[in-house]
Amino acid sequence: MKRKIVADSSCDMWELNGVDFAVAPITISTDNKHYVDNQELDVHLMSEELAKYKGVSHTACPSVGSWLDCYEGFDEVFVITLTGAMSGTYNSAMTAKGIYEEENENVKVHVFDSLSTGPEMRLLIEKLKEKIDEDLPFEEIVEKGQDYLNHTRLFFALKSLHNFAMNGRVSKAVASAIGVLNISIFATASEEGTIQQISKCRGEKKVVKSMIEHLEDAGYHGGKVRISHADNLKLAHNVRDKILELYPNADIIVYPMGGLCTYYAEIGGLLVGCEC
Q1: Where are the transmembrane segments (predicted)?
Q2: Which residue, 10, 16, 217, 273, has most beta carbons within 10 Å?
């Protein structure tokens, strides 16, 4: 029996040791250029070019064919997608699931709507690998994966909401107040998979302090934390170091965002996923 984990590129992962893993790329586009969110994408260059671009940009979910290519040849496939409340990615993966199961006897595909993105998706991917390593039955892995999502959270610290507003994800009135006078917005992935603003603060020290407060308010007590950043390693490390000061045994990984998360978080943004 061949098992595989598949995710869209908003997970910001390209490799997963010890298990078959594939990524279906999301595309970021302007009127004159397409950026495929894969391992070869120069994310910094993309951000620079988009900052200078005066027109409208948008994103496109992986095609059904792209998902089918990822599923091909495997008996059991566990799929994790960007929140279905803000993207067609989940629906595209589900369409591919129906086709794949219809065309291949005795295969099983389960699509998890993460209701989130980035680090929270990564936490689920790691949990699914753990359960695959334990050789649990397909249905039990699905059950444990879904339950795990009920015990993880995602928080954002963003300096701009420009691209969210341009794509209708948040109101332009809300976006216009962010990024002025060094103000950062804190938000979380809501239970419905949308962006829920929770606070604002000014200055990096207050960003770190507020992030820790939000994590602890959510029930964090020293478990896994995954921190992705958009060209802001210093802030990511400051948040990591503060968590370790309070919880010395915490399992923390810091890494750069890929294309899709950088597009929405924008330069300076931070995403923090945690177990709670």
Answers
A1: none
A2: 10
